[in-house]
Amino acid sequence: MKRRLEIALESLEGFRNPKIKLEQYTTPANLAGFILTNAELFGDLMTVFDLGCGTGILAIGSALLGAYSVGVDVDWEALRIARANAEKLGVSVDFVACDVRNLELRRRVTVVMNPPFGIQRRHADRPFLEKALEIADTIYSIHSAESEVFVRKMAEERGFRITHVWRFIIPLKRTYSFHEKAFKYIPVEVYRIERDDSISRR
Ligand code: SAH
User: Fold this and answer.
1) CA-based nearest residue to 9, from 58, 52, 68
2) What angle do CA 96, 97, 98 make, to 5 degrees?
3) How far is the CA of 61 from the centre of ligand 1 (A)?
4) Which H, E and C letters describe 141-153, residue by residue?
5) 36 with 111: CB under 8 angstroms?
6) Residue to probe by mutation, ligand 1, list 10, 15, 75, most atoms within 8 Å of CB
7) Which residues pair with 173 in a beta bridge?
8) At a CB cut-off of 8 Å and minimum separation 6, what does 135 contact?
9) Sign, Cα dihedral of 58, 3, 145, 194
């Protein structure tokens, strides 16, 4: 199952002209596969919002596993690729072009996201986490290593807790010309965050 998902996700197109200011990097297919198959096992893939969906790998993967999924991004160009990616795999995903800060929902969902890490701007992931904690019961989020103190504090202040931390080293493709090597390996952490009362409300 996981392998099949990964193979499908590997076939997706990434960013054509990655915009440095938006920190556009694609999540590797095997990491996306790991996160989404776990989310499925936890029963978290009902309605999924992918904040900063880029070319759509997390939103599309969620849809492949049966979720109703929505991808949100400020970048039209990325969303156009995301839409073509969804069509290619024959899944329906709704894409919304807006700044994640402007998103408002009436009921809570699952958020799966790989937000900007703040390599360009420190804590560029803060508005993403803030929004996720506002609209989600359960969050799967990828951050640069050693974000745990920051993530935990934000979560706990809003009545959430971290239930899992998974650590990975991922290759980032040489997307931007200032990187000299074809790949750069960076340590990342994936958090599963849950609203404190969400177990009793299931
Ligand atoms: N989630 C995708 C892309 C990660 S890169 C993947 O896993 O492959 C981060 C994405 O966040 C980029 O596509 C960028 O355009 C988007 N982004 C950055 N700031 C944003 C904002 N304020 N609102 C919505 N999207 C934003």
Assistant:
1) 58
2) 105
3) 16
4) EEEECCCHHHHHH
5) no
6) 75
7) 183
8) 49, 103, 104, 105, 108, 109, 111
9) positive
Q: How much is the pLDDT for 201?
A: 53
Q: Judge if pTM exceeds 0.90.
A: yes
Span 7-18, average pLDDT? 95
What would the pLDDT profile of 81-99 be if each residue is shown by its tens digit?
Answer: 999 999 999 999 999 999 9
Report d(CA 199, CA 90) in Å as an integer: 33
Distance 200 CA to ligand 1 centre (A): 32
Q: Please give the mean pLDDT across all residues of the chain.
A: 92
Which helix (DSSP H) or strand (DSSP E) does residue 26 occupy?
none
- pLDDT for 122 equals 74
Task: Collect all residues with Cβ–Cβ distance below 8 Å to 199 and sequence separation of at least 6.
Answer: none
Decide: residue 106, CB within 10 A, 0-12 exposed, 13-18 middle, 19+ buried.
exposed
What's the chain's length in residues? 202
Q: Ligand 1 center to residue 51 CA distance, Å?
A: 7
Q: Which atom of ligand 1 is nearest to the CA of 124?
A: 19
| Confidence (pLDDT) at 171 | 87
Pairing of strands 109-113, 47-51: parallel
CA distance 137 to 144: 22
Rounded to the nearest angstrom, the distance between the alpha carbon of 201 and the centre of ligand 1 is 31
